[in-house]
Amino acid sequence: MAKRRKQPQQTLTLTSLHLSGSLPFDLVVEILYRLPVKHLLQLRCVCKSWNSIISRDSDFAKKQFRLSTSSHDRHHLILSSSKFLLSHSSISSIFTSTFTTATSTVKQFGYGKRSILNKIAYRNSASTCDGILCFKIHDTLALVCNPFIRKFKRLPLLKFPHQFHTSYTLVYDRFTNSYKIIAVTNSYKIIAVNTSRMKYEVSVHTLGTRCWRRILDFPGPDLIPNSGSGTFLNDSVNWLTSGIADWAYLIISLDLEKESYQKLSVPVFDVDFPISMMSTLGTLRGCLSLLSPRDTFYDVLIMKEYGDENSWIKLFSVPQTNPWGDCHYTKVLYISEDDQVLMEFCKGWTETKYSLVVYDSINNTFKIPKFQNNIHGHMVAPEIYVESLICPF
């Protein structure tokens, strides 16, 4: 009996729809909005109109991004190393893989000045917004990039007299429809001979311009912000701070529209284990979050209503002891729909090597994603981002 010839798979392609005129072009664009970035990049070669929309239409890029945020497959974990190798893996593959076959893509970002990138800051050096990342190279220099479309830009130098430390936070300012970098610089102000005082100066750079602009200094000088990037949420940038005199912790929030500050209280669920220098600020499920250590575990807390200090709730607790020895958690990166938690941790208290772990809060088990072994050199800063066509530089 002769074998039946396998018929070619019939697929409905956007190319055939467009060229045959089967669909109005406006409807084709609506379909394009819903495709992942990697497919859109391939479709640029179909025709000039498609290439123009995909490559140069900022409104198209923003709408495509908004639709992508609801798809877990388009959320990625990106790891960067001291050698500026970027490794990314979809969030869904991290939670569903067996952790021995987890896939990732490793690419070396093509920035020409290798001598600069070899000096990339080791910790707290990345900030992300709308699929764009900002990497701190050193205290006076930062780099912004969109890794999916492989576009990058070096920011203008930011220099202050007696500069000690600078952190960079990437934000979207909807009031001016622009992307900005908020820089907090820790410097020493000379007030007398052999006498100085620490101060925190705040500057803003709008992508597409050539300079930095000073705004009102960070409230203080008795408040010390955490050394990492701020947390962008609800048109504001938030820092966890401590008082010099009493080590009391609170959150300082910078309003992007008014360029003014307000103070938010931190939660107190256990007076014996208050918020401390080991606590970290972030965002989870669209809310401001805190990771706070206690005696034998870490609490994961969120502020359900931004600005309402009474809306803090505890999501769950993560055990501090685990099969691979003494460690402390430094960041909660993502929570899946079935309450698996992707976290960053540091093994030991003197070692500066950071790793990733997934904690299953329902079954109280841990797993370590193996793909992070692809990172060559020290891991600098894991971040969650949504793939995007947006490129404001």
Number of strand segments: 25
- Low-pLDDT parts are 1-13, 15-20
Terminal Cα span: 63 Å
Mean pLDDT: 79
How would you describe the overall organization of this protein?
The protein has helices at 14-20, 25-33, 37-43, 48-56, 58-68, 91-96, 114-117, and strands spanning 75-80, 85-90, 105-108, 126-129, 132-138, 141-146, 151-154, 163-173, 178-192, 195-206, 213-214, 223-225, 231-233, 236-243, 249-255, 260-265, 280-284, 287-293, 297-303, 312-319, 327-335, 340-347, 354-360, 365-367, 383-386. The protein is built from seven helices and 25 strands. The protein starts with 13 loop residues before the first helix and ends in a 7-residue tail after the last strand. It is mainly β.
